[in-house]
Fold:
Amino acid sequence: MRLFTSALCSVVAIGLISGCASSVSPSNSSIPGVGSATRPISVYDDFTPVRAISVLHEIVPEAKKKPPTTGIYVSEFGETDLLGYAADNKANKAPICTVQGVSSVNGVAVDLKGNLIDPDGGSGYVIVYKGPGMCPKKQLGLISDTYGQPSDASTPDGATDTIAVGNIVGKSSTPGSLSLCTLAAGTCTTNLTNGAIYHAGGVAMSPGGDCWLDAKTSSTGGAALIYFKGCAGGGVAAKGFKQTYYGGIDIDNKGQLVINDLDGEDTYIYSGCNPTCKVVGGPFALKGESFFGKLNAANTDYAAVDRTNGDVDIYSYTGKAIKYEYSFSKGITLSSSIVPEGVAQLPRSKE
Structure:
């Protein structure tokens, strides 16, 4: 665990991560399907690290300075912090800040207000941090996800609106799902399922209130894009979807879906998919295996976390094509127990 900022901890690699920050995250022992009976899993199915327990010893106050409101977050499954980087990192500089006390994080999200959302797979909670500055310390609240292991999220405003949460798996390793959750309720109140879902991958919610879930369809592979009109009902598999394996989803400022294919190591740009998709561009080859990718607010840069090379790859984006520009890797770990996975840009793309 890194000690860049606010806490000093000792780590024992025998139990579960419960948090190491000024606001300690809750234990996952009481969350059905996420506690000791089912170890949290990564979107990279072959990767399930040993869990650890963090014990808080001392809080060290940080120097007071206004955090930047632009940057890139990176999550690493198996680590206990989120990394925050400068928005333009061509010089491959180290993280400018961290958010500590997270566990088993796959995807990570930012809403339109700049709030940070951590679908915390280890604790079984969706944690919402107050933005818009990078690496916020204040939690707006916790949402208990009793439907499964949270692994991705999307919402216009995590403080006041519904949050669409993808559960990679359900209770006791049952198929994944899409849950609807709010801070006001403190829990996820609705769970949407579809027979095509084996593992749930990337999630996207439009400003109009529609939801998409990119799903792995069986234990051996396959992919389907499930469209939930109004984020309700049983959903329908989108026609014209080209991916052969699941991955992350983002929405650009034209309402187009940008979707990665993990096994194909490429990206497609689609319009529609409600439920018929039209290919706008792609497949565009990626530099390595990238599950999650996110656009910046200007829709000029697309950042994808690359497991093959253990870095973040930055691509130019035009709405019709993407092109590799540069990578950064300082501070990112790729090992037998840690793998980089999620990414979020601040500010994020908005339709």
Remarks:
- Confidence is low (pLDDT under 50) at residues 1-25, 27-37, 50-62.
- Residues 265 and 282 are 12 Å apart (CA to CA).
- The longest strand covers residues 277-285.
